[in-house]
């Protein structure tokens, strides 16, 4: 998620009123964010991915102005009519079909503002653009290029330019192979024999979207005008990105000129701040929120969130600010009413639904089993289900198939355990320098691949016990197994079992109610050694669902 | 110190010390007439009570070596040689071979010279004046006393014998010296006072035995008073795991609040884990760096039914929900991918899809998995619990339930902040106030499921949902800084951890 560095002085200047730092720290989270840290005049704030319009100090200033009630309602911005155009060539249709644009004048930049602008671009690339796939932004100093502009696709051998951060001309293929940004984003546009370009009227390259801009239009502290291109795969989304970016410029007092974008069949003028209108019913709002607020209160709450709003009877007419990209459904407006109303102002009440709670039967059984086992002087341990082939199979001298992770993050966790015993032996390994005897148990889940289920795997709830001390032997674990069967009131039989982890002739199968439930016995020295242990270990594992 | 608080053996030891002054346990054994182990036990109790002081000394014990034992019996080689010399006045060297072995001859000649007992003059051995005077050298005296005593402590030797010990140390296998520690016990001021008050030794009952009960001797005997402040051995019983205690506490709270417990698969389809929750297929949470995908099983089966189709339509264009949707081409293939569930919400969603009659109040508690590198803050698997209420309920009820839920857990001050989750709207985060730390801490998320989530499942009323991670709560309760400790199962910790 995006962490924004807010310059408090700048924030106050932009919002046009003074907010005390303490008050800001207290109220800002009620707008929807986490404060990550404070450093002098800077506050680091994490805004949520649904609100990219708050990813700039300008956007935050606008929101606070409303939220604190200094100037409520829909913000009117003055856009100046187009002075130039971009012609969109059909060749980009299959590669990256859409572009929107604006020109900015009266620009005053410094080092910090340039950094903030770059941060905003990157956050928008990430959150709206899904790492530039859907949206990518080019911000240029147009003083060395000549309008109007073209958005077109060109084959490799026909074009060369100096990309940002390089000294020499490169072709698009060279950039995608050698330039760090080229390597990062090649996957978005490769697979075509042509590459998308924004060019000026003389064929100079402004950018190779979504990869990199040209060195020619690099923005510096001396820059007085800006030219913005935003390309992508979703026209609405790039329009939102342009609205977020261009209203930030307007908040700072820059002048924004629209640009004509000439597609083959239609011309659009961007940016366009016409608010989307929605009618929602007050009942709907009150129903979801569990409130009974009036139309006026709803309008007040909406205006605190920057909406235009009018109430008539049970109906609310809502104008959604053009920079909001997250309003999918009327319920999103309802949430903003809740935030504008203030979560702290809700009357928290319990619903009028009388029910009785019932335990899951397996959980109930396990709860009772744990009580028994602690009574047998066994300590409960809890371990991770993630395991690896070596621990789960090789060290146990057994073979099998496990639920396997496609993208493991470490060698220790490549599969999900198929048995609890390795987990418990691992606990003994961790405790090998501690006092003996050690007598532990775990009741936990294992997973096994199982094609008969739609999920392709099935969980089993197992119970396992291990005992380690110099005289640990078959009789001791048999006593525990039998005590358990008796305490559960089960008819059981003990039969000879052969199991790779146990000494031959010292392993038994428990058959409870006619079904095999598990096994117990003395572990083979090879297993004991594999877990770095030096004392005899006896063990038992049973399937809880079979007893 | 009341003498009733003293064991009979303790009294005997005190009396012995009164007579002996500073003494070793061995001396006390002899004086008090009780066994060595009884003396030791009595001394350690007396020392705990501050009645005696124990000092341990490092010392060296001298014992006879293999050669030493032979020499004590036959005499040192040089002594044997000198005896012969003494008898004959003077002898030729080769005459020594009749009474000494070849090795012993060499040893004897060396030491006769070194001790200034005899000299060799052109192959003839003659006694010196000194040799004629000496009857027994200090080393011989030392060997004899070691033989008599079994062993001697170096600290008890006079300077002459100490020097002799040094000499003998240089000879092969004659004596063995090893480090020993020995102790001396003496009375403290408190001890002397106790004795002054008078110690009466009488038969008293310490351990009450079945015999004493049966034969009635207890009627005429005194019970020794125990010193109740003496430390008892630490008892480390078996327990439930502290994280289990928290799991059970949370389950109990849900059950008390009238919620039914449900469970669901841990190896799950991306469909139930993400798609049914309106998480778009290109959402970062679905990427490999956040979610564990499985290669076995690689694919799940998802039904070809109305629900899947409605979910697809909700993603693509909002379906009948009034949403604009995510507007992309939904892939059934991606929804069939097999993952380890990243939250328990997959279980509650499955339950909602089963079409239960409203109102519904259920909860689920279980393990969830995230592709996180292990650190003091993160584990790739942890416990999550989640509750839902579906019916004629709204946001203010969600806040009411949360207040109740968290106050039952012991957090009296709770506050709510706006938050974002892809599948709830409105959403919130719960902060609880930590009285002891004087600060707020985030402890869970909540919200109302989006219509794009509930409508495809055929639910047309609000569904309130909230959840929290248990490990964070456990760390808070147990004062842990490192989440890994919960799954290390260090028995020293588990045996001593307080039960909350």
Percent in helix of chain B: 25-40%
| CATH top-level class of the largest domain in chain A | Alpha Beta
Segments of chain B where pLDDT lies below 50 for 5+ residues?
none
Query: By CATH's scheme, which homologous superfamily of the largest domain in chain B applies?
Result: Bira Bifunctional Protein, Domain 2
Q: What spatial form of chain A do the alpha-carbon principal axes imply?
A: elongated
Q: Please name the CATH architecture of the largest domain in chain B.
A: 2-Layer Sandwich
Radius of gyration of chain A using CA atoms only? 33 Å
CATH topology of the largest domain in chain B: BirA Bifunctional Protein, domain 2
Largest sheet of chain A: 10 strands, mixed
Helix proportion of chain A: 25-40%
Instruction: Provide the β-strand percentage band of chain B.
Output: 15-25%
User: What's the number of structural domains of chain B?
Assistant: 3
* Biggest interface, residues from each chain: A-B, 91 and 99 residues
Structural notes for this entry:
The complex is a heterodimer of chains A (547) and B (500). Chain A is α+β, with helices and mostly antiparallel strands and 547 residues long. Helices cover 29% and strands 29% of the residues of chain A. Chain A folds into four domains: 2-67, Phenylalanyl-tRNA Synthetase, Chain B, domain 1 (2-Layer Sandwich); 85-270, Phenylalanyl-trna Synthetase, Chain B, domain 3 (Phenylalanyl-tRNA Synthetase, Chain B, domain 3, 3-Layer(bba) Sandwich), CATH 3.50.40; 276-343, Phenylalanyl-tRNA Synthetase, Chain B, domain 1 (2-Layer Sandwich); 361-546, Bira Bifunctional Protein, Domain 2 (BirA Bifunctional Protein, domain 2, 2-Layer Sandwich), CATH 3.30.930. In chain A, a hairpin with a 3-residue loop joins strand 9 and strand 10 (212-213). Chain A starts with a strand and ends with a strand. Chain B has 500 residues and is α+β, with helices and mostly antiparallel strands. Chain B folds into three domains: 3-58 and 181-223, Orthogonal Bundle (Arc Repressor Mutant, subunit A); 64-177, Arc Repressor Mutant, subunit A, CATH 1.10.10; 244-496, BirA Bifunctional Protein, domain 2. In chain B, 38% of the residues lie in helices and 21% in strands. Chain B contains 21 helices and 18 strands. Chain B has helices at residues 8-20, 25-32, 36-48, 66-74, 77-88, 102-114, 129-133, 138-149, 159-169, 189-196, 210-215, 242-256, 270-273, 306-317, 332-335, 345-353, 395-408, 451-454, 470-478, 485-488, 491-496; strands spanning 52-64, 91-92, 118-121, 124-127, 152-153, 175-187, 204-205, 222-223, 260-261, 267-269, 294-296, 338-340, 360-369, 381-390, 414-418, 424-434, 439-449, 463-469. The two termini of chain B are 39 Å apart. Chains A and B meet through helix 3, helix 9, helix 11, helix 12 and strand 17 of A and helix 12, strand 9, strand 10, strand 11 and strand 13 of B. Strand 19 (404-405) of chain A pairs antiparallel with strand 11 (294-296) of chain B, so a sheet runs across the interface.
């Amino acid at each position: 998620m995006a962490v924004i560095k807010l310059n408090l002085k700048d924030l106050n200047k932009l919002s046009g009123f003074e907010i005390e730092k303490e008050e800001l720290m207290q109220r800002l989270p009620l707008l929807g964010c986490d404060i990550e840290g404070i450093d002098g005049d800077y506050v680091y704030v994490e805004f949520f991915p649904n609100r990219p319009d708050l990813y700039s100090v300008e956007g935050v200033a606008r929101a606070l102005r409303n939220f604190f009630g200094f100037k409520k309602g829909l913000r009117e911005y003055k856009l100046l009519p187009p002075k130039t155009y971009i012609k969109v060539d059909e060749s980009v249709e299959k590669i990256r079909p859409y572009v929107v644009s604006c020109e900015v004048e009266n620009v005053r930049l410094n080092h910090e503002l340039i950094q903030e602008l770059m941060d905003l671009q990157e956050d928008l690339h990430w959150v709206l653009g899904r790492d530039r796939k859907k949206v990518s932004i080019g911000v240029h100093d147009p003083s060395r290029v000549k309008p109007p502009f073209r958005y077109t696709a060109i084959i490799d051998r026909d074009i060369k330019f100096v990309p940002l951060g390089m000294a020499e001309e490169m072709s698009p293929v060279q950039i995608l192979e050698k330039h760090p940004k080229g390597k990062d984003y090649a996957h978005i546009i490769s697979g075509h024999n042509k590459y998308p370009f924004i060019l000026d009227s003389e064929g100079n390259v402004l950018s190779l979207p979504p990869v990199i801009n040209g060195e020619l239009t690099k923005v510096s502290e001396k820059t007085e005008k800006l030219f913005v291109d935003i390309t992508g795969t979703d026209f609405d989304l790039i329009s939102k990105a342009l609205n977020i970016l261009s209203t930030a410029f307007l908040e700072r007092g820059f002048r924004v000129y629209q640009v004509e974008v000439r597609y083959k069949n239609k011309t659009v003028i961007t940016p366009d701040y016409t608010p989307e209108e929605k009618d929602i019913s007050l009942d709907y709002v009150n129903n979801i929120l569990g409130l009974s607020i009036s139309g006026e209160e709803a309008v007040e709450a909406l205006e605190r969130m920057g909406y235009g709003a009018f109430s008539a009877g049970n109906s609310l007419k809502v104008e959604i600010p053009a920079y909001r990209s997250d309003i999918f459904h009327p319920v999103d407006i309802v949430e903003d009413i809740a935030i504008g109303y203030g979560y702290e102002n809700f009357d928290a009440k319990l619903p009028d639904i009388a029910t009785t709670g019932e335990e899951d039967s397996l959980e109930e059984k396990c709860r009772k089993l744990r009580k028994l086992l602690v009574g047998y002087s066994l300590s409960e341990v809890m371990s991770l289900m993630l395991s690896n082939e070596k621990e789960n199979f090789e060290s146990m001298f057994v073979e099998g198939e496990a639920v396997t992770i496609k993208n493991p993050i470490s060698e220790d966790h490549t599969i999900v355990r198929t048995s609890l015993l390795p987990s418990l032996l691992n606990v003994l390994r961790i405790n090998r320098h501690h006092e003996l005897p050690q007598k532990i148990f775990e009741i936990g889940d294992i997973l096994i691949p199982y094609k008969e289920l739609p999920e392709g795997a099935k969980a089993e709830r197992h119970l396992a016990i291990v005992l380690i001390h110099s005289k640990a032997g078959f009789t001791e674990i048999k006593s525990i197994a039998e005590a358990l069967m008796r305490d559960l009131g089960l008819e059981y039989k003990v039969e000879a079992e052969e199991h790779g982890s146990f000494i031959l002739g010292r392993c038994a199968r428990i058959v409870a109610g006619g079904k095999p439930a598990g096994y117990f016995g003395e572990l083979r020295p090879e297993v004991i050694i594999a877990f770095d242990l030096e004392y005899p270990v006896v063990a038992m594992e049973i399937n809880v669902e079979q007893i | 110190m009341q003498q009733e608080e003293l064991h009979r053996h303790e009294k005997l030891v005190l009396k012995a010390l009164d007579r002996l002054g500073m003494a070793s346990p061995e001396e006390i054994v002899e004086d008090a007439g009780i066994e060595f182990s009884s003396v030791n036990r009595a001394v350690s109790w007396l020392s705990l009570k501050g009645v005696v002081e124990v000092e341990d000394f490092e010392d060296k014990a001298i014992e006879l070596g293999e050669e030493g034992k032979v020499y004590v019996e036959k005499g040192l080689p040089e002594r044997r040689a000198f005896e012969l010399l003494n008898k004959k006045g003077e002898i030729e060297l080769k005459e020594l071979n009749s009474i000494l072995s070849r090795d012993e001859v060499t040893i004897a000649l060396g030491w006769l010279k070194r001790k200034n007992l005899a000299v060799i003059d052109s192959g003839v051995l003659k006694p010196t004046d000194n040799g004629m005077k000496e009857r027994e050298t200090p080393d011989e005296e030392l060997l004899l006393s070691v033989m008599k005593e079994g062993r001697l402590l170096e600290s008890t030797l006079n300077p002459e014998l100490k020097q002799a010990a040094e000499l003998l140390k240089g000879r092969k296998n004659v004596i063995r010296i090893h480090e020993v520690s020995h102790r001396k016990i003496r009375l403290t001021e408190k001890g002397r006072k106790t004795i002054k008050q008078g110690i009466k030794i009488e038969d008293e009952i310490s351990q009450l035995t079945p015999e004493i009960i049966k034969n009635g001797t207890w009627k005429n005997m005194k019970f020794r008073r125990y010193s109740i402040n003496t430390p008892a051995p630490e008892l480390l019983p078996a327990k439930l795991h502290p994280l289990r205690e928290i799991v059970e506490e949370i389950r109990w709270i849900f059950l008390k609040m009238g919620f039914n417990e449900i469970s669901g698969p841990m190896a799950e389809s991306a469909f139930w884990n993400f798609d049914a929750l309106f998480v778009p297929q290109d959402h970062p949470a679905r990427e490999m760096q956040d979610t564990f995908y499985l290669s076995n099983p690689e694919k799940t089966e998802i039904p070809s039914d109305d629900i899947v189709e409605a979910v697809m339509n909700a993603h693509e264009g909002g379906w009948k929900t009034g949403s604009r949707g995510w507007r992309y081409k939904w892939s059934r293939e991606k929804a069939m991918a097999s993952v380890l569930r990243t939250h328990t919400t997959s279980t509650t969603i499955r339950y909602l899809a089963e079409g239960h009659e409203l109102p519904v109040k259920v909860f689920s508690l279980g393990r969830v998995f995230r592709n996180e590198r292990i650190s003091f803050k993160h584990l790739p698997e942890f416990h999550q619990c989640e509750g839902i209420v579906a019916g004629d309920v709204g946001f203010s009820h969600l806040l009411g339930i949360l207040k109740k839920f968290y106050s039952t857990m012991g957090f009296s001050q709770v506050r709510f902040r706006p938050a974002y989750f892809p599948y709830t709207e409105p959403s919130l985060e719960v902060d609880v106030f930590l009285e002891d730390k004087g600060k707020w801490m985030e402890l869970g998320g909540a919200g109302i499921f989006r219509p794009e989530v509930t409508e495809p499942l055929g639910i047309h009323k609000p569904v309130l949902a909230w959840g929290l991670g248990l490990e964070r709560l456990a760390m808070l309760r147990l004062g842990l800084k490192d989440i890994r400790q919960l799954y290390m199962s260090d028995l020293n910790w588990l045996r001593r951890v307080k039960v909350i």
